[in-house]
Design brief:
single chain; Lambda Exonuclease, Chain A; CRISPR-assoc_prot_Cas4; 40% helix; Cas4_exonuclease; antiviral defense; 21% strand
């Protein structure tokens, strides 16, 4: 089984999410979530609309659209992989969201995963990524990506592998407020 950025994000939200969904195979029924479904529709739409303006703002010298990338551990579909004049590359990801003066950790983690995939698939260094908030008139936000950020997602992937391969029951998140909206809250042991 290869992981996706969603696996990484779910684990960072709570390691037990990984256990319930991928060891016990209890689905979370995300297809019932309006924002998830709307985001997927918008993703497909945005792949067809005018993005040359955003690419020019970033300073892209090459583009690879809708890239499905893999390595031995992780896989993901990057909306755009852009090459810059200094030889580095950047992921560009569209979000069906409003920008509220901060970038959520889930979005950052997704970009870190994409950076890992881009470096292994294209052989170019990734030092930053970009988010486009479609509900804020396509606001473009730059997100720095460090070696530590990429190493964190690699370490998280190893931890997920331990849960799935060894049937390991992990500790729940220390942030108890996350349990309120969790789809597994009724079956989770405290």
């Amino acid at each position: 089984m290869t992981l996706t950025p969603s696996h990484i994000i779910e684990y960072l939200y709570c390691p037990r999410f990984t256990y319930f969904e991928y060891v016990l195979a209890i689905p979370q029924y995300e297809e019932k979530n309006y924002k998830v479904m709307r985001g997927r529709e918008l993703h497909d739409l945005k792949l067809e609309q005018n993005k040359d303006y955003l690419r020019r703002r970033i300073g892209a010298v090459s583009k690879h659209i809708d890239q499905y990338l893999t390595n031995d551990i992780i896989r993901g579909r990057v909306d755009e992989v852009l090459g810059l004049s200094n030889g580095t590359m950047v992921p560009l990801d569209y979000k069906f969201a409003e920008y509220k003066d901060r970038v959520y950790e889930t979005y950052r983690t997704q970009l870190y995963c994409y950076a890992w995939l881009i470096e292994e698939n294209f052989g170019h260094k990734v030092e930053k990524g970009f988010l486009v908030y479609t509900r804020s008139r396509n606001k473009l936000i730059e997100v720095p990506i460090t070696e530590e950020n990429k190493q964190e997602v690699k370490d998280t992937a190893k931890a997920i592998g331990r849960i799935i391969e060894d049937n390991f029951f992990p500790k729940a998140t220390k942030y108890k407020a996350r349990c309120v909206g969790c789809t597994y809250r009724n079956m989770c042991i405290r």
